[in-house]
Amino acid sequence: MRITDAKVIVSCPGRNFVTLKITTEDGIYGLGDATVNGRELAVASYLSDHVAPLLVGRDARRIEDTWQYLYKGAYWRRGPITMAAIGAVDTALWDIKAKSLDAPLYQLLGGASRESVLVYGHASGNDVEDTVAAVADFAKRGYTAIRAQSAIPGIPSTYGVGRGKLYYEPAESGNPPENVWSSELYLNFVPRLFERLRKEFGSEVHLLHDVHHRLTPIEAGRLGRSLEPYHLFWLEDPTPAELQEGFRLIRQHTTTPIAVGEVFNTIFDCQLLIREQLIDYIRNAVVHSGGISHLLKIAHLAELYQVRTACHGATDLSPVCLAAALHFDLAVHNFGIQEYMHHSAETERVFKHGYTFSQGTMYPGDAPGLGVDIDEALAAQYPYQRACLPVNRKLDGTMHSW
Ligand code: CS2
Ligand code: MG
Predict the structure, then answer these.
(1) Which helix (H) or strand (E) holds 124?
(2) Do the strands 372-374 and 29-33 form a parallel or antiparallel pair, or are they unpaired?
(3) Which of 212, 236, 402 has most ligand 1 atoms within 8 Å of CB, for mutation?
(4) Of residues 71, 106, 159, 167, which has the active-site annotation?
C-alpha cells in the first residue's frame, strides 16, 4: 500500500489548524492533526519541506517503522514541532490502516474497554457567582465532570476565563496579549471558589481546576492542601513540569490528585513523574506526543504505576485529534477522563466527524478509521491568520508562565 501523496492543509475556521492528509495508491487517505497553537506554520513547514518528501513511496502499513524512521532519522529528537509532525503522520497512518480493514480505529487498539468515554467541560466566570452559574449550566447540559476557572479579584486578566460560553480560545490575532499575575491573590482566592462550588453542588459532581503552570512546588503544595476539603478530581499543571522531581515536594504536602502533561511531547517528559507516582493523570495529546503509537507507550507505562490517561482536548486541538483521542480513550485500560472543549461552528463545518456527546460522555463512532473528514474546498475559504497565545507577567513586570 504505497503512499502517493502527503498534503498539508492550513486553515483558520474560527482558529488556525494544520491538517496532514496522506493518500495511498489504493485511494485510501488518512488525516492527522498537526496544530501547535501559536506556532502552526513551523509544523506546516516541517511537514511540507522535510517530512512529506520522505513519505511518498513508503508502505503506509508500516506505522511503527515510519515513526522510528522520522524520530531517529531527524537526529534532532523530541520537541513540540517535531513530535506534532510525527504525530500527524502516525495518526494518518492509523486512520488509513483502520479504513483498509473497514474497522473503527479503537478496534485495532484492543477493542472497547468501556461503553463510552467520560469527558469534562470548561466552566468559567468573571467572579465566584458567575462561575457558579457557569458550572450549573454545564451540569444542566449533562456533564458530570466540570473544570471551574474564575477571574481573580485584583488581577485584570487571567487564564481560563473564556470569551464564549462553550469554549475557550486563548490565542489572539497579532502579537501576544500581555496578562498580569499574582500568585498571592490567586492562592487566597481559589479555596473560596471551591468552598462555594461544593456548597452549591454538593459532593457528587467532579470538579477540576487548572493552575496552568503558575505556582512554585511549595505554593502548589499549599494550594493542594487548602483544596483537600473540596476533594477536587484534579489540580492541573500546578507548577512548570520541566523539573519533574519538583513534584516530590507537592506530593509531600497534599493528597489532592495531580494532572500534568498537555505541553509534553514524549514519554521522556513524564517517565519520572509516572515511575515515582508523582501524578495521578497524564495529559499528553495525540497531536503533540507523536500520535497514537507513542501515546500507547505512555499509557502502558502509566498503567504499571496506576496513573490514568486524560488527553488534552482544548479548542486548539482539531476534531481530527479529538476523534483519535476518543478511539484511544475507548480502548486503553487505564483511561481516566477526556477533556472536551467545543469547537466553533466554522470548525464543525470544515471537519465532519462521527463522534457524539451524551450525558457527560462521548463516543468516537463506528465508521472505519477515525470517522472524521476535512472539507478541503471549505477549508480553503479560511486562510491562515497569524495569532499568538498570551504572555504573562507578575505585578512587578517579571515574565511568568502563562
Ligand atoms: C488548557 C488549554 O485545556 C487546557 O487544559 O491548558 O486551554 C491550553 O491553555 C491551550 O491548549 C493552549 O493552546
Ligand atoms: Mg491545561
Answers:
(1) strand 117-125
(2) unpaired
(3) 212
(4) 159
pLDDT in tens, 318-349: 999 999 999 999 999 999 999 999 999 999 99
Strand partners, 209: 235
pLDDT digits (tens, 9 = 90+) for 23-64: 999 999 999 999 999 999 999 999 999 999 999 999 999 999
Name the residue with the closest Cα to ligand 1, atom 4.
Answer: 314
Judge whether 159 counts as a catalytic residue.
Answer: yes
Cβ–ligand 1 distance for 262 under 6 Å, the answer yes
Written as one string, the DSSP assignment of 356-383 is EEETTEEE--SSSBTSEEE-HHHHTTS-
Q: Against a cut of 0.70, is the pTM above it?
A: yes
3-104 classified as CATH 3.40.190.10: no
Burial class (CB within 10 angstroms; exposed 0-12, middle 13-18, buried 19+) of 108: middle
Q: Whose CA is nearest to atom 9 of ligand 1?
A: 170
Rounded Cα–Cα distance for residues 167 and 341 (Å): 5
Q: Hey, which CATH number is domain 108-367, 3.10.310.30, 3.90.1150.10, 3.20.20.120, 1.10.8.60?
A: 3.20.20.120
Q: Take residue 366 and report the three cell numbers written for it.
A: 463506528
Q: Helices 291-304 and 80-100: crossing angle, nearest 10°?
A: 100
- Ligand 1 atom with minimal separation from the 210 CA: 5
**Rounded distance from Cα 386 to ligand 2 centre (Å):** 22
Task: Categorise residue 367: left if φ over 0, alpha if ψ from -120 to 50, beta otherwise.
Answer: beta
Cα-only R_g, the chain? 20
Q: Do 3-104 and 108-367 share a fold?
A: no
Domain assignments of the chain as residue spans, ordered by start: 3-104, 108-367
What atom of ligand 1 comes closest to residue 237's alpha carbon? 6
